[in-house]
Amino acid sequence: MQIKPHKAICLALSLTACQIALSIDMKAYSQTSAQKPADPKAGKIDIGPYMKAVSDKIGPLWNPPKAKGETINDKLVVRFTIEANGSISELGVKDSCGDKEIDELALKTITKAAPFGKLPAGVPKVSAQFALPCKSGVSADGVEMKPYFDDMWTRILRTWWVPKRLLFIQVPVKIELNEDGSLIAASLLKSSGDESADKLAIIGVKRAAPFAPLPKGIKAPFTVNYTLGYKGGKDQVVYWNGQKVSKGESYTTSGGVQTTLTDNTTEKDRAFHKKKEETLIKMFGLDAKLDTLAKLGNHENPEMVPILLEYSSQHRQIEEHKEAKDKLKKALEIAEKNLQSFDKSETTASVTQETKPPESKRQDNKQPEDKWLENKKRAQKTFSSALIALAQTEYSLGNLAEAEPLLKQAIAMKETELNEKDQEYKDLLNTYARLLYKQNRTKEAEEQYKKIKELS
Prior knowledge:
Elements: E1 3-5, E2 14-16, E3 21-25, H1 26-29, H2 48-58, E4 75-83, E5 88-95, H3 100-113, E6 125-133, H4 146-159, E7 171-177, E8 183-188, H5 195-208, E9 222-228, E10 237-240, E11 243-246, H6 267-294, H7 304-317, H8 321-354, H9 358-364, H10 367-396, H11 400-415, H12 423-438, H13 442-455
Antiparallel strand pairs: 1-10, 2-9, 3-6, 4-5, 4-6, 7-8, 7-9, 10-11
């Protein structure tokens, strides 16, 4: 079920985005200190990660108001010193934006963000300068971002889904993008207090990616802070499952919340909503597993295949068939490349063995060969699982032309490489026979049923 905003009301799914320019006074950083660096061999201490954490803390708090005058500058620069314990001093405006109220708001924002974490060992203090955008929807470098943000908002709204009870729980999320709009990471700025709402927000952003390429003049990585969730209020409403919902109004939900208003959600829809919530939260966990494997540097790790197969089944649970097929195709691609690597290594090993003396061959052909055969068998079964899942999915969607070659390949693999004529093999034959009947290829279908009968 889609959540639709009332056209006459401002939707309160809010966006805050700041591209903050940072400069550090290295003279202040280089001041002598009785405290020695943590690693003398390293020379200067890298405070880049620390300053990024400072920027990440300021960013979500900075929301420039709409400018009153037309001569306002694109950015203002604030300066301050971070002491060893993370507190700040010497806070002030270095370059004004031309609006005193916005300058003062910037100082209040820095004060609110402080204190920061303790400085790295060996760093007595840091004098920093932050350039903050003065105009809402405009970066610190003067790039008009509103059209880009509107597009991001539209994409996220299509994929972000929560059950009715979580509509008005707001989840602040940090989104990091590459120059081409692909997602680097999506993480919580802070928890909303509801674990399900937090997970549904993150998976909603991930399902919306990739976004459009960044506008010209915007440097990557680019950070955007979104707050997912409706603010609500007496003048703000949303329509959910065809019913007007506003903050403070509750309904008779699956959780048993009683109200004076009638919930028109049918039992069938209620069951589907419960299933969708559970499915999306499972996807959150599967994404975490895929991210862990991807961080190892191999984006075609065979261990991803069973995770992608499970991910596909979750898509089918909530009738997302296109997404299910995409996951299966990716799984099949990875599994096929993994299996092909065994064929290549077998050829190489064969050539190597031919150049060795007989005694050496006998020593090499013991345990390593058994282990190699075991791993190849596992790779064959993994490929077969992905092949069967995609074949069955194409058939269930009525894509007979796409399903037939996949089914034939899966049946052949069961009969030859795997030599398995189990229940899964019977199911494949049965599916193939039904496909043939649907195409009025009766004689061929009967041949498949004959094979099944012979196995009984």
